[in-house]
Design a protein that fits this description.
Order of helices and strands: HHHEHEHEEHEEEHEEEEEE
Strand order of the largest sheet: 6-13-12-8-9
Distance between the termini: 54 Å
Largest sheet: 5 strands, mixed
CATH class of the largest domain: Alpha Beta
CATH architecture of the largest domain: 3-Layer(aba) Sandwich
Shape: rod-shaped
Strand content: 25-35%
Structural class: alpha+beta
């Protein structure tokens, strides 16, 4: 059997630093892991890029290195081979190997790595925990996608209307466990809205509606004081100003940047007096690994 040049014993001795005896013992495992079948006897120059990377990964991980640098190898091959690669990487990690993994797959980075360096256009954008890196990258992608004409919708536009002369929104302030615009998943979120009302509007009744919107335009949740049976009794602040507070005791949102769409409406009709979009922006921080938009209470049986 004629071995391809990269699998010669001389090559293995030079690249891996193996003795002839160690080379003879290691070569069968390399061939078995690569799963190249009959192609193993063909010149490497005839290999596809996927076949070459299979072979390279098999050679690089044939021994227990102190440092392993992997560049997108986990995207090579079918699901079975990718599974084998991940298993081997995790085994090397558990054995104390330092692993540097370069990948566009943010979820793989979060699963395998403890820390992440996110590069944006070749520059370091964030260095921190792998989960934090995945969240920062996901948020960047959502912002970029939402900024394209194809994905921007009327509901995600951020240009507020000028307030009318009679009934309008005056202020919106975050409270509860939200500090400096940040809140953890499960925290208490409070949004206090101050409105200006005429005597007629106060007598007829108004409702305040809110929608929580992620920065890619996805509506996370929306409701109104009328839908929730709150009625029309806003707290008077003196003069023509009134206050109402929207409270979420245990915020289920997962990581991301969010803001409110706030609307002041007539209680009896669908008429909207005034609305703000992109109001009271905040960031949700989530330290666990569950994914999606919200954390749903659940259990395993």
């Amino acid at each position: 059997m004629t071995r391809p040049p990269s699998l010669s014993k001389t090559t293995l001795v030079r690249v891996l630093g193996l003795s002839p005896a160690e080379t003879n013992a290691t070569l069968p495992a390399i061939l078995d892991f690569a799963e190249l079948g009959a192609f193993i006897d063909r010149p490497v120059r005839t290999y596809s890029s996927g076949m070459y990377l299979r072979l390279a990964f098999s050679v690089a991980t044939a021994v227990e290195p102190d440092v392993l640098i992997v560049d997108e190898h986990l995207s090579v091959g079918d699901q079975h081979f990718r599974f084998k690669c991940k298993r081997r990487i995790m085994a090397l990690r558990e054995a104390g190997c330092t692993i540097v993994l370069c990948s566009h797959d943010r979820h793989v980075i979060a699963e395998i790595c403890d820390r992440a360096l996110w590069l944006n256009r070749g520059r370091a954008a964030m260095l921190g925990g792998s989960q934090e890196g995945r969240e920062a990258s996901d948020d960047h992608v959502r912002v970029r996608d939402a900024s394209t004409p194809e994905t921007t919708t009327e509901r995600s536009r951020t240009v507020p209307r000028e307030h009318p002369a009679d009934n309008y929104l005056c202020a919106a302030e975050l409270g509860g466990d939200c500090r400096d615009g940040e809140i953890a998943t499960g925290g208490r979120l409070a949004l206090t809205v101050v409105v200006r009302l005429t005597d007629q509007a106060r007598q007829d009744g108004v409702t305040v509606g809110v929608v929580i919107i992620r920065n890619d335009g996805v509506w996370a949740y929306g409701s109104t004081s009328k839908i929730d049976g709150f009625g029309t009794d806003l707290h008077p602040l003196g003069g023509d100003r009134y206050r109402v507070t929207f409270v979420v005791e245990h915020l289920p949102l997962l990581s991301g940047h969010f803001s409110f769409l706030i609307a002041l409406q007539d209680f009896r009709t669908p008429h909207t007096f005034h609305y703000w979009s992109n109001a009271a922006p905040f960031r949700v921080i989530h330290s666990e690994n569950d994914r999606g938009l919200v954390r749903i209470s659940h259990r395993w049986e």
